[in-house]
Batch of 2 targets.
Target 1
Amino acid sequence: MAKSSMKPTCSGAECDNEAGTLQCPTCLKLGLEVSYFCSQECFKNNWADHKLLHKKNTGIYNPFPSYPFTGSLRPVYPLTPRRKVPDHIAKPDWYRDGIPKYPPNMRRLNKHEVLDQAGQQAMRTVCRLTREVLDIAAAAIRPGITTDYLDEIVHNACIERNAYPSPLNYNHFPKSLCTSPNEVICHGIPDQRVLLDGDILNLDVSLYFNGYHGDVNETYHVLSPTSRGPSPSASLVVDTARECLSLAIAQVKPGTPLGEFGAIIEKHAKSKGCSVVKSYCGHGIHKLFHCPPDILHYERNKSVGVCKPGMTFTIEPMITLGLNGGRDRTWPDGWTAVSVDGALTAQFEHTLLVTEDGVEVLTAQPPDSPGGPLVLEDGASDF
Ligand SMILES: [Zn+2]
Ligand SMILES: [Zn+2]
C-alpha cells in the first residue's frame, strides 16, 4: 500500500487544520490515545470539551470541581470500594456504624489513664506491629503509584498481622490509611492520584490489636532513582517537623507538664520560618484510639496535667512552610485538611510510654527503617 500523504487533522472541534506536534499532556499522562492540536490557541479553546474525554476514558474525576482549592492538589475519584476485614479479626466498635463510643464523663473527668504492666505490654505489641506496617508501606513509595495502592498495602499488612486498621470507618473514614501529600496537613483520603517525583507524602498508620491501638506517622520524599533530590523547601519543612517531634520527645519524663511540648515545638518551628497547625493535636491512646490528654503543639496552650509513669500518648506536630499561622481548611470530603495558602506541610508522630525515668518510644523505628532515624539538630540521635 502506498504511503498516505494525508496528515492527521487537529483534534479541535470544527478545526480542519493539520495537526501539529502539540499533544495533550493529560492524555499522555493518563495513557490515552493522544490527541494532537494545531496550536496552543486551538488546544485552549477546545479544553472544556476535550477534558471530558479524559473522564470518559478513565472514569477518574474531581468530585468538587467548583471548590476553591488552596493549592494545586486535587482529589482524584472514584475511591475504591471499602476493603473487607475477615471475620476472625477483632474489630473496634466503629467497624459497623462508623461511630466510636466513649465512656461517659471521659472529657469532664479529664482522667489520664495510667496503664498497668499488662496494658503496657499490649501497647508495646500493637505499636511494634504499627511500625512494621508503616515501614512496609513507606518502602513502596515511588513516583507513578497511587495513594490507593498504598492503602491496599497497609490494609493487607494489617490483616496478615491479625490486626484491624484503626482508621477504617472511624467516624466513617473510608480507608485504612491516611495519605497526606504536599499541602495536605492530615487525614488525606487515599485515592487515584498518582505520586509525582518531588512530592512529599505523610503516611499515618494506626492498628488495633488485642484491644489496644498503636499510632505512628512520618513524612517521606517521593523521589525517582534519577531524581535530583528534594527541593530546599520540601527538605526544610520535613526536617523541621522531624526535629520538632524529636525535641519534644526528649522532654518526656515524669513531672513534665503536658503543656510544655507545644512551647518546645512552636519555638523550633518559628526559628526555621515555619508555623504550627493548631486545629489538630496529639492524644492519649490505649484501649481508646483518641482520648485525653490532648497534646497541643503550640505555645501558651491549655494542656492540663503532667507526665506520669504508665501514661501513653502521642506527640504529632504538623508544621507548615512559612509564617501563615498554621491555619487550615477542610475539603468538602469532610476530612482532608490543607494549609490555608497551599504551602507544603509535614508531620511526624510517635506513640510514647512515660517510664519511671523518661520515655519509651513505642513506635520507634529500627535502624533500617525507610524514613531514617529521628535526629536532633546537632546530629545526635536522641533515642
Ligand atoms: Zn496517627
Ligand atoms: Zn495520632
Note: Residues 22-58 form one domain.
Target 2
Amino acid sequence: MKLRKLVLVLLTLTLILVLAGCKKGQKTTTTKGPDTTTTQPQQSTTTTGQQQTTTTRPTPSQPTVIRVAIWWQAGDDPTYRDPATGEYPDAMPIALREARLQALETVKEQLNVEIQFVQYQDVFQEVLQSVLANDPIAEIVGMWGGSQGTVIGQNVFQDITEFRHLFGDEAFWMLGSMDMFGKTMGFSFQPNAGFEYWPLVYNITMLQNCDELVAKYSDDDGNVIIPAQLWAEDRWDWATFKDYLSLIKACYTDKGRTNPDRGRLIHAYEEDYRFAINSLAASNGEYVVRKDGTLGIDSEGFIAAIEFVQDLYNSGIMWTETYDDGFTPGWLWNTYNFNRGEAVFTSAAGWLIGSAVDALKERGEELGIVPWPKGPQVKQNPELYNYHTVYTGGNSFAIPKGVPKDKVELAIKAWVMYMSETFKNLGHENTMKYIESENAATAAKYFSITHEVYGESLKKAYNDWVNAMDFDAREMMNIGSVDEVFAKIVAQKLDARTTIAANKAKYEQILNEMRQVLQGSEIVDNQPPVVKVKDGKELVFKVGTNLQSDVDFAEYLEAYDIGQDKGFSIADVEFDFNAIDNSKPNNNSKLKAKAVDNKGNEKTYEFTVIFYEESDEDAPIIELKSDVTTPIKFKLDYNLGVVNWTDYVNVYDKIVDADGNVLKDNEGKDLTFDLAGRLQANIESVDVTTPGQYTVVLTVIDYAGNETSFDLTIEIVLPEE
Ligand SMILES: [Ca+2]
Ligand SMILES: [Ca+2]
C-alpha cells in the first residue's frame, strides 16, 4: 500500500513536470513563429563550353507540413496507393481523387503548405497518448460520428473559437457541429448531404389507395394530396399529421388489411419511437442538449413531443416492433417492415433509403419524404423556437492541444482551401453550389421530383429537411442513452413529466462533468491500460506447465497504461487462471488478465493459451484451400512482401496426446492447432519484374518442432489492359 502511494506521488510529480513541459514547449514555439526555415537562394550551375555561368534565384522555403489524421486512408487520402500493387485504390472515385490532388497542389502553391494524411489505429488511445507527450499525432484529427464523445471527454482538443473567422463564406458549413458550452471544439468533415438522421418517409402508392384519405385530402382532380404538398402549403403540423395518419389507419389497420408477403397487418405508422421523439421535439424547437449546453428534455416543448408520440401510440396510429424487453424498438425492424409494405409511414434509417426505394419500386410503388410536422410551439412562436432537423454532428475534425497557434491558423486555412478547391475542381462555382447540386442529386435519385403534380413538392421537402439540420450535442456529450428512457415512457405508458424528472439528474450530471472537464485545462485519462502478447511471442506451453508458478508473464506479455498511469506494468495485472487446463493438449484454455489504472479505468483481457504434447512427432500440414487453384496469379511488379499466404493455404497441426493419438471433438472430427501465424514464405526465387511461373516455398514448424514445407506455384502476369 505504501509503495502504491509512493508511486502515486511520483506519478503526480511526473505529470506536473510533463504538463509544465507542455506549457513551456507551447510558449517557446509560439514565440518562434510558424516557420523557422530560412529561405536559401538556390544555386544552379550551368556549364556551357568554356564559359561557366552561375545564376542565383530565390526559391520558396520548404513547405510546412500539416498532418490530417483519419481512420480510413484509402477513402480520404487522394495520395494513398495500395501497398501491394502501388495503384490507387477503388475506394475513391477517380474524378474526386483528381479534384483532391489538384486541390493539394493549390494549397501548396498558395500557402506553401503540404497536407499529409496519416491513418491512426485507435483514436481513443492515440490522441490522448500523443497530447500527453506534447507531440500530437496530427495538426487536425478526424473522428467518425459517435466516436467524438470519448475523445472530447479527454479534454485533448483546443477551443478554436478565435479562429472561426478563418472559415469564411466558403467553409461556413464546417462550423456548428462541435459547438459546446460556448466553445468551438471542432468542425465538420463534409457538408450535410444524403440522410444524416432518420427522415420521415411514406409510401405514396398506399396513400393513393386509401379512400378515406382521398375523401378528405384530395385536389380538384381527385388526386390524394401527399404530405410533401401539405408541407409546401404550410399545412403540415402535428394536428394534421395525426388526422392524416388516423385516416390511413381507418383504411388499412381497422379493416384488417395485410401485406401480401407475410400476411401481416398494415400499420399507418411503424416507428422506432426513440427517433420520433427526438425528431418531433426538434420540430417543436427543442433540443436534448441546447446550444448553451443545458439539458432540454424536461422543457414544456419536449414533454409535449413525448406526449404527442404517446398519443399516437396509445390510439393505435403508431405501432412498433420491440426486442424481447418489450420496450426497445428493434432498431431497423420498422424500416424493414416499411420496405415490405407493412407500414405506410416510418422514419427510415438513412442508409436504408436506397433499399426502400428499390423494394417499393419492385412492387410498382413510390417513396415520399416530408419534413417532420411543425409542433405547436414552433407554429405559435417561430422567433423563439427554432424548427429544425436533428443533427448529431456526423464526422468531424478537431485540433489537438500542443499544436501552436500559428500552426492552428495555417492548418485551418489550408484545410478550408483544400475543401473548397476540391469542390471547384469538381466543376462547381463555389461550395454553396456544390451543396445545392449534391442535394438536388439526392432528391432526384430517391424521389419522383419530375412528377407533374407533386414532383416539386418532394424536391422542396427533401431540401427543407436537409437544410434544417441543426446540431444537438447529445451524442458528443455521451447522453444518447436518454433514448431508452423515451422508449420506456412510450411502451410502458408512463407519465412523461414525472419519468423525465426522475431521470433528469443522471443526464445533468454527465453534462456537468463534461462542462467541468472542458472548462478546466487538465487532460483526462479515460482509457484503461493495455495488456498484449509481446511481438514474436506466443502463449504456448508444454502439457503440465503450471502457469501460476512456472511462468514469468513479463517474458510473454507487455502492459502499459493509455494515459497517465506511467508506472503501470505487468506486475499490476491481476491474472485469473480458472479457465486454464494444463492436463492435456488443447487450444481452448483462457488466461484472463484484469488491468486497472490509478484513475480506476478497467479492462479485462482474455488470451488463448496453447498446451501441446512435447512427444508429438507428426509433421504439421500445409494444404491448398479448396477454392484455390494454382498457379496463383499476381500482376507484374506486385509487392509479394504484403501477401498474406494463408489466404491460399490452410496451415495446421493435428493435436496429439502422449501416445501419439489424434484428439477428436464431440463429433469425431480431428482437433487441430491453427498454425497460420507460424507460416513462413520464401519468395527469393520470384522475379516480379519478369512474367512467368515461380515457386514460393512455404514452411511451418509445429509446437514440438516438426517442420513441413510446401511448394506453391505462382505466376507473374502482365496487366490485362
Ligand atoms: Ca489510463
Ligand atoms: Ca505435430
Note: The first strand starts at residue 41 and ends at 48.
